[in-house]
User: What shape does this take?
Amino acid sequence: MKPLRKLLDKVKPNFQKGGKLYFLHSVFDGFESFLFVPDHVTKRGAHIRDSIDLKRTMSMVLIALMPALLFGIFNVGIQYYLAQQKVIPGFESIGWKEIIPLIGFWQIFLYGIIKVLPIIIVSYVAGLGVEFTFAQLRGHSINEGFLVSGMLIPLVVPPDIPLWMVAVATIFAVIFGKEVFGGTGMNIMNPALLTRAFLFFAYPAHMSGDSVWISAKPDVISGATPLSLAASGNTESIPSALDMFLGFMPGSIGETSALAILLGACILVFTGIGSFRIIISTIAGGLFMGWILNLVGANDYMLLPSWYHLIIGGFAFGAVFMATDPVSATQTAKGKLIYGFLIGAFAVILRVLNPAYPEGMMLAILFMNVMAPLIDHYVVQSHIKHRIKRALRLRNKLSVTT
Assistant: This one.
């Protein structure tokens, strides 16, 4: 890294005030702070200094996303070759256990990389292009906030999504979900989920149905996700609980494997980056509402075990990586419990009672993103009233004793 540091120090004067490339100082500062620890700190006033900063926080989230990303790449290849083999006579009942030794691990993984890598590149190019533009126009430094959003976006879309749609949706989400509110740390909604919501409502044919979840799927093969099967009442065709937990099923790139997401959750909670209160309360809300629907039992979907909701669709991914967004989530300890519980409950309600939106987690999180400040407000007001009452009781007690 020393040669790179020397190179940056050599060209840095060109980007400082008075240099001929000063108009690009925000871009240079962004690359420098991404590669190295920034050399500027607060000079005055009372500040809390810690070993963690925005760059390290974003880097830790990226590390936590790696299990879901790597498995998602592999599963894209698995689903493609499964669909191709099932149209060959004699291979109609083939499963993922048979396809791996038949095709080969690395060939399957390579196909997944070929399909997923362009989506990641387009997401970063489109999103960072907007970030760089706004930073230059405002004369601000470029923050590392989009490092995570740029990776989350490819993980919540189908593998066959057209790349131009990813670019348009990402640009929309960054501009109207983030930059208009002031940039990193000021957004009221999760930019990655806003990207998915834009795609869902603007291009529904590419975000729903059986044709989008498997890359280059033969027309005679169903690519239905477990959520769409359950919403249609075809609960008998849902994959086994083990397959859904491991993630060998059609779905968004990074949302299928509950096991990979669980590994990421352990990393986030252990490092203190993700809120365990939000994760646990979201799971509790989903289980509670699933149990309530089990008691009603009006159809086969309602009779599904409540814990099934944790391993199908984007519930686990949303609970770990979306609901815990420190900017758009609640900030108070009690508020996090309320916020997470309502996300889990609303997600299951939307899934089961509204077949038009089989993936209720997206809408539940976005709705609670908007409600988060209100929840925090009432929690803080409740604490203030409680302390006032306690102070009054203490004053009355002292007046009586004197």
Residues 360-401 form the longest helix (42 residues). The chain has a mean pLDDT of 83.
